[in-house]
Structure formats: structure tokens, C-alpha cells
């Protein structure tokens, strides 16, 4: 007989979990006591939300569900933004929260909050454990639900008295859920229709989304594009689905995308959506896109198909399996003239000129950084102008681009980069954020220093909430309201106060030597770049 807390640890060990992220409190202390006696590494974040973001970064690199932990009440509630962020971007996570004892539920006692009810709109599934004997089944199901079908977060809320109850333990080998049967294989007839449409196309195009990563289908996407000679564009979440130097890749589409990608979408006669939901940031006017072209949409979640774009050939199933079936039927499509026209647009779209020697041009800096970075570097962009600059300059041939796409959560990049670095310690991991978003996550410098995580951090400082200021400039007659960050700390000195190596540059001429030092340091390093407040995303 062992306690439920001990059983929970054994469940994590059975799932081959080696690293978890969390912040303890009284209602989760029995579990933490059991965790201390295991070989699982616990990373203490400085705020619970960041445990969720760190687990997100870890999961996105490993491709498997990652774990974050918090106590009841405010601890669990602080995870809500991270849970919603993971849900919107289909990231597999298992969240463990402590809860007040069963006899106290619903009595508004100290640090009680209905976390399962609070997260209901943006969770794949949630459990509150009231029967101690069911803990092994619940944990097994949680990992299965999080990592299969359309991935997503699953929450397990465990009352404190349940954690201390003793049970006999055995871990299930299989999962049986009658109501959960994700479609894995695409319908052969629909695949045949899709291939016929592509073969007859004069201007075929693939739109790659974040679902490519969820399906672990990057190799298949690359092979299919090459076999059929079909150009590719991506949503922001689909960046790095194919190598950035792929001759058939034309960049990110959408309101902040590049011209070649947007022209490609407008001119295509057959558009294949591969794990992309085509949200409003990617396709602002869905009707104008779907009216004049045939659309093929592949997604494991049938609710996504046709939600934003009218779909002519829907294919429900696992993208990896469907692309494998399509590769078997692939023939080269002769659309060289179409590809050449896109290449000509691509060659003219650079906008990295340095305008002011008193500031750093962020586009040019990122371009130089990615030219120097190892070709498997992981780049984690935050939200705001820095996200757009990073997305459009990303040029790491075999690298990985991560960001918060669906929710657009500021404060994501540094904790997510912590998770990514711990998941892939031999890869260079770079976080890019603005000084506004940095101040939503700067406490995690403590986590980085405590664990000596050799993370690279770039902070684009312009003393403004730059994206909002730019919107106010364009849409509200320049009426700037609540965007001035006067009173912010000296970020370089702040990093040094944590014992982290840091430098600040004011011009692109200073970047050459500093970037080499930045990339080759084997310790945490923060580089602050002073950017002109009027610098735009374009």
C-alpha cells in the first residue's frame, strides 16, 4: 500500500517523465514530498503561469505531453492563461493541481477555487479525483488524451486528503475510452479527389500550419512538396515546418506576413491546408480567398474543417498518415512559371535597411543573428512587434520556431525557451521579446540562474508597448494611450543583478562582435538591443 501522492509519482515515472515544472503550496505538498524521493527533476519557476509555458516549450520540442504543477486556489488560477495558450495552439500538457480536502469542497474555504470549472472552455479534458483508487487510471487517460488526436492540455485536480490516502497500486497498460476515437486514417476517396485536384492545378499551393508539428509530419510535408513540385507558405504556427531555405518555401502569410506568401494565396487555384485553421491573422477575408479556388483541408479535428474557409475536399485524419498516402500517389506538377513568379517577388521583398545609426534595426539584427546561429537553433518569439520581426526574419535552415499563436500571450518566450532548452540541451535556444513582454516574465531570470540554464535572450527595448503604439498611430490618429513604459528597470543591469551575463547595444555596428560572444557563451546571456520607438513591423 502506498499513498496516492506516491502513486502519482510512480505514474509519471511510468510515463517516462524526467522533468516537471511547478510551484508548491500547502494543498500539493503531499505530492511534492513524494516527488522529492524520485529521480524526476523539478524546475521551480517564479510564477505558476510560467510553469505552464515552460511545459509548453518542453512539449513542443519533445513532441510528448509535458507536466506542470501548482497548488490550489491562486496557484491553480495562475495557470489559466498558460492552459488557454496551450489549448489554442494544440500543445500536449498534463497539469496537476492540488485542491482542498473533499469534505471542504464548495464551502469557500481558504484557497479553494473550482479550477476544473474555470478552465472548462479551453481544456481538452479535466478530472477532479474524488475516488483515490482511480488515480492510476486517470493519469494514464490524461497522458493518452493530451498526446493523441488533436493534442491539448488535460488537468488533474487532486484534493489534499486524496493525496494522503493509501491504495494498492498498479499502472494500466492500455486505455479504454468509448467516446474518444480520433480518426487516424484519411478517407481513400477524399485523398484520391485531392490528388486529382492538385494534378489538374496550374497554381497549386500548400498552406502549412501548427498541426504539422502536432502530427510529427515535417518530413512527410517536405517530401510531398518536393515530389509534387508544390510551393509552400505557412501560418505563423507553421514556420519551420519545412527548412527556411527550401526553394519552394515562400514565407509566412497574413496581416503581418510577407508579400510573396500573400500573393501566392491570392493567386493559387488549388490550396491545400495542412494542419492549419486559417484564422483571422492568417486570412483576414476568408470569403475572398475561398470564392475563386478549390480548397483541400486536412485536419485531425473535424470541427476545424470549414470553420474559417469554405472547403471543397475535406480530409479528416492524422496528417502524417494522410501525407504518406498522398506521397504514394504523387507525380510532379508542372507549374514552373508560377514558382518563378513567386521567386521574383520573394527576391524583392527584403526590408532590412539600416535607417538610424543611433538605434538597432531589429530586422537586420535578427537577420545577422540567424545567419550566425547553428542550423538547428530553436527560436522562441514573444508577442508584439518582436514576434513579427522574428517570424519574418527566421532563416535557420533546420531550426524550430516557437511562439504563442492562437492566444498571443505576452510573457511566453522566456519560460517556453527554458522548457525547450531543457528538452534539447545540446541545441542553441534563443528567446526574443520586447521590453514590455520581458517585464511580464523577468522573474524567470531567477529560474535560469538557479538551474544554470544556458539560454540566450534578446530584448528589443523601445520603452513602449510597440505593437499597440503602432496600432494607435495607424488607427487612432496617433493618440497614444497607456503605451509608454517610462519607469522600467535597466534591463541589462537587472540581468547582471541575477548573475547573468548581459550586454546592451545601440547600433547594428556593435552587433558583429557581440553576436559571436552571445552565441558561443556556455552560460545564460541576455542581449538588450535599443530600438527606435517609431520602428514599425513592416
Plain-language structure description:
This protein is α/β, with parallel strands linked by helices. 37% of the residues lie in helices and 17% in strands. It contains 23 helices and 20 strands. The strands form four sheets. A six-stranded parallel sheet has the order 3-2-4-5-7-6, with helices on both faces. It has a six-stranded parallel sheet with strand order 11-10-9-12-13-14, with helices on both faces. Helix 7 links the parallel strand 6 and strand 7. Helix 3 crosses helix 18. It is globular, with a radius of gyration of 24 Å. The N and C termini lie far apart (63 Å). The model has no long low-confidence stretch (mean pLDDT 95).
Search tags:
538 residues; six-stranded parallel β-sheet; 20 strands; 17% strand; globular
Topology of helices and strands:
Elements (H helix, E strand, L loop, with lengths): L1 E2 H11 L4 E4 L6 H7 L5 E4 L3 H15 L3 E5 L3 H4 L2 H9 L4 E7 L15 H4 L6 E4 L6 H13 L5 E7 H5 L1 E2 L20 H12 L4 E5 L2 H4 L3 H11 L3 E3 L14 E4 L6 H9 L2 E5 L11 H5 L3 E6 L13 E4 L2 H10 L7 H12 L14 H11 L5 E4 L3 H9 L6 E3 L10 H11 L5 E6 H4 L6 H6 L5 E6 L4 H10 L15 H7 L3 E5 L5 H10 L4 E6 L8
Parallel strand pairs: 2-3, 2-4, 4-5, 5-7, 6-7, 9-10, 9-12, 10-11, 12-13, 13-14, 15-16, 15-17, 17-18, 18-20, 19-20
Antiparallel strand pairs: 1-8
In short:
The protein contains 23 helices and 20 strands. It is of the alpha/beta class and 538 residues long.
Q: How many strand units?
A: 20
Question: Low-confidence runs (pLDDT<50, min 5 residues)?
Answer: none
Q: Round the mean pLDDT to the nearest integer and report it.
A: 95
Radius of gyration: 24 Å
The residue fraction in helices comes out at 25-40%
Into which percentage range does the β-strand content fall? 15-25%
Major sheet, described briefly?
A: 6 strands, parallel
Output the structural class. alpha/beta
Backbone shape? globular
Strand order of the largest sheet: 3-2-4-5-7-6
